[in-house]
Amino acid sequence: MSALIETHEVPAFIETTRERRHFQFMVRMPIMIAQVVGYGMIDALGNHADTCFSNVLSPTDFTTDLGFFVNDKIHKGLLADQTNLVLPQGFSDKGLTRTQRLALHATEQALQHSRLPHSSNVAVILSTVSNDSECLEAVTPAFLENRRVNPRVLVNRLPDMVCHQVASHYNFQGVSYSLFASCSTALFSIDSAMKLLSEYDYVVVGAADAGCFPFSMKFFGYLGALGNFSAPFDDRRQGFCMGEGAATLILQSPEQAKACGSTVYASLYPVGMASDAADATSPHTGGRGARLAIAKAMRHVDQVHAINAHATSTVLGDEIEYNVVTDVLPNVPIYAIKSKIGHTLAASGMLETIYAIKAMRHGVIPHIHNLESCAFLRPQGKLCFENTEFPKAPVLRTLKNSFGFGGKCASMVIEVASS
After folding, report:
1. DSSP-derived 3-state class of residue 126
2. DSSP string of 12-80, one letter each residue
3. What CA–CA distance (Å, rounded) separates 276 from 290?
4. Given a cut of 60, is residue 286 above it in pLDDT?
5. Which residue, 74, 75, 116, 418, has fewest beta-carbon neighbours within 10 Å?
């Protein structure tokens, strides 16, 4: 559904004439609203959306000992629940990485959830940031010792190979590819998917990472980014706790959803994207990329009722994000899904989008796990220390933030109509 939306005033922090003209041009462009007609997920809290959401509201901590040390202190993570993976019927999992298994589970679940009739006119976007290093960790010893490695295993290290696996198994003949935008990969993938809706009967878009293995964790450990527990915004936070997971959305345009009689679980507004243009691993201290991304994401709506924060539990990043959102959107409740599932890398934004949908459909904003005290708490900053009810409204909206290395910033408004 394309529609011209009235522009809001240009935010005050957009200072230069060129930037202001660019912003004004963007808000006058026709927009495509994406409808979520199916979803599937798996993470440390469970392998189904209902289980995951029930556990995100609970006080239970799912952090486990990984059985290996990254350094002299980091040895915990949040492993995905792989006890009952549901792979596509007849699909051989031989040679698959753990990341690919998670992605296939979430995708099969999402397709079943959508109840859409099969079509070959379907596009597939499934992204990951750790699949290749997961595979390389397994095969490098054989390489160095000149031992033979199964070619199928080698091919599966390619980040976009799960797209092939899904497209070929389901006979989806539309375009298929992966994106890489660090920890904001999921929202960049959603943005790309939204631009394809008019061409295809539906678009399969997802992201997956199973990052609890030594190669991945040592990388982040050497950067000083890891901690043994996840405590976004809390004074005790030390770094993010590595998590694992996958999530897939089935998207249609409003016209397609209506024609198919699809159940619409949520609507997604265009993703706002920007860059800090600053440090490789740390956000800009003033959060300029985040501010611009949020302003772009908010250009088509007048309010949101909650903020689903990126909130990785890092010392620097959490405070910067908190200051940005409380400046731009004061008095809006803020919650942080990574407090329960850890940082699932590329999968995080996709998983958190589904959690936002479930939260609005249930009318409950999840608490921030492990949050006890916050030294930088502002009067206008509403951190969710406990599960909180959404206000009663015909339509509920949540702003989802995802930020990544290299200053990548993305924000998106998710909307759910009251039943």
Report:
1. strand
2. TT--SHHHHHHHHHHHTS-EE-EEEEEEEEEETTBSSHHHHHHHHHSS----EE-SS-SSSS--EEB--
3. 7
4. yes
5. 418
Listed in sequence order, the DSSP H helices in 128-264 are 131-144, 151-155, 161-170, 185-194, 214-222, 254-260
Distance CA 84, CA 113 (A): 17
Is residue 220 within 8 Å of 242, Cβ to Cβ? Answer: yes
Q: Do 2-33+272-417 and 34-260 come out as alike in CATH topology?
A: yes
Provide the H-helix boundaries in 198-346: 214-222, 254-260, 288-297, 315-328, 338-341
In this structure, the dihedral spanned by the alpha carbons of residues 262, 400, 50 and 43, taken in order and rounded to 10 degrees, is: 120
Stretch (H or E) spanning 89 = none
Domain layout of the chain by residue ranges: 2-33+272-417, 34-260
- Which CATH fold would you assign to the domain 2-33+272-417? Peroxisomal Thiolase; Chain A, domain 1 (3.40.47)
Q: Give per-residue pLDDT as tens, 12-25.
A: 656 566 566 655 55
The CATH topology of domain 34-260 is: Peroxisomal Thiolase; Chain A, domain 1 (3.40.47)
Prediction pTM value = 0.92
